[in-house]
Amino acid sequence: MRSARHFILAASALVIPLTAGSGANAFEFLHRQAEPHGKALACYKKVHTPDVYRDVSRRVVIREGWQETRRIPAVYGTRHKRVQVRPGWWQTVRVPAVYGSRKRRVLVSPARTSWHTTPAVYRTVHQTRTVRPATTKWVTKRTGFLRRDSKLCKVVVPALTETVAREVMVSGPKRVPSHTAAVYAWTSERIQLTPARTKRVYHPPVYKTVSERIVMTPARSHVVNHPARYGTRSESVLVRRGTTAWKRVAPGC
Known about the structure:
Layout: H1 2-19, H2 24-34, E1 44-49, E2 52-63, E3 66-72, E4 75-86, E5 89-95, E6 98-109, E7 112-118, E8 121-132, E9 135-142, E10 150-157, E11 160-171, E12 174-180, E13 183-194, E14 197-203, E15 206-217, E16 220-226, E17 229-240, E18 243-248
Antiparallel strand pairs: 1-18, 2-17, 3-16, 4-15, 5-14, 6-13, 7-12, 8-11, 9-10
Helix pairs in contact: 1-2
C-alpha cells in the first residue's frame, strides 16, 4: 500500500514539468526518475512540425513607361487647275439635204369571192324491228325413266327481233361562198427628208488641266507615351514557423 501511494506521488510529480512546457528538461527528469526503479512510467518522442508557407501573387513592373518623340514628315499632294486654252467661237455650217427611203404598200390583186356547192350530208341510223312476236307453247317434260313419268308445261317463246341500218340525210347540198383576200406588196422609193440649209454652230471654249505640287500637311512632331508593362510574380510567404514538441507514445517503450 505504501509503494502504490509512492508511485502515484511520483507520477504526479512527473506531469508538472510536461504541462509547464519545459521540453528536453522534462524528458531528462522522467528518465532520471524511472531509472532507479528499472521500469519506464511514460515514453515521449520528439515531433517536428514543418514551416507553413502560402503562395502570394504580386503585381510587378516589367518595363517602366517611357516617352518617344516621333517626327511626321510633310504630306504633299497634287492640285489640278483648269486653264482656258482657246475661247468659244461661232461657225456657219452648210447642212446638205437629207434623203431617205419610204416604203409604200401597193395592191397586187383585189379580193374576190367564188361560189361552190357542197354535197348532202348523210348519217347511218340503226333501227330494231320485230320479226316474230313472243308466244307461249306446251312442252312435255319427263320426270322419270318411264314414259308415263312425264308432265305438261307451258313455256314462253321470246320474240325474234333484228336491227336494220338505213341512211338518213342530215343536210342537203349547199352553195357556199369562198372569199380570197386581196394581195398587197411593198415598194420602196427615195424621198427628201430635210432640204439643204445653213446653220450657225457654237464651239465652246477649250480648257486643259494643269497640275501643281502643294503642301497638304506640314511636317510636325508629337510625343508618344508608352505605358509601363506589368506582370505577376508568385512567391512563397512564411505563414507559421515550424515547432518541436514532445508527444507521448504508447506505454511499454
